[in-house]
Write a structure and sequence with these properties.
Helix content is 35%, strand content 37%. The chain has helices at 2-42, 46-50, 71-79; strands at residues 60-63, 66-69, 85-98, 101-112, 117-129, 132-142.
Length: 158
């Protein structure tokens, strides 16, 4: 029994190190994907903004007004509002679930050209498809209008 533990421990440690290294690279890839997405929104580039979404009828976007299914439907929905604001993401927390799956939690900030500010939280399920990280499920919700960009998520939400 002791021999089996001694022999498998180095393999376990090697697997953990490999996973940690892979995970950090995946976290960087996902974070950079979301940074490009926010820049595309701000640049009024709908195609660039939608690039990280999986082009599929199974794409699901849950939001305060309901559920939108399918890439084209999500594209059309965002197309109505893209030119109105600057988008930023913060408080990103990426959890790599597998080599090809990750869960992303974060906060969005929408600064509209008319001076209005909207913020909310999102959770993304991302899958690596054809070598690229794609959003297959997006659940976004609004925070109260009195939240400011300096508020942190560790405060109690009313």
């Amino acid at each position: 029994m002791k021999i089996a533990i001694v022999l498998t421990l180095p393999l376990f440690l090697l697997a953990c190190q490999k996973t940690a290294v892979c995970s950090s690279g995946q976290v960087i890839d996902i974070t950079q994907t979301l940074e490009r997405q926010a820049r595309a929104w701000t640049d009024n580039d709908l195609d660039g903004f939608m690039a990280p979404f999986h082009r599929s009828d199974t794409l699901r976007f849950a939001h305060p007004k309901g559920i939108t299914l399918g890439w084209q439907t999500v594209y059309d929905r965002y197309g109505k509002s893209i030119a109105k604001s600057r988008l930023e993401f913060s408080d990103l927390d990426v959890t790599v679930l597998a080599d090809d799956a990750a869960l992303v939690f974060g906060r969005f900030h929408n600064y509209e050209k008319n001076g209005a500010y909207h913020t909310g939280l999102f959770t993304l399920l991302m899958k690596r498809i054809d070598g690229r990280w794609k959003v297959v499920h997006d659940h976004s919700s609004d925070l109260p209008d009195d939240w400011k960009p300096t508020d942190r998520l560790d405060k109690t939400v009313r």
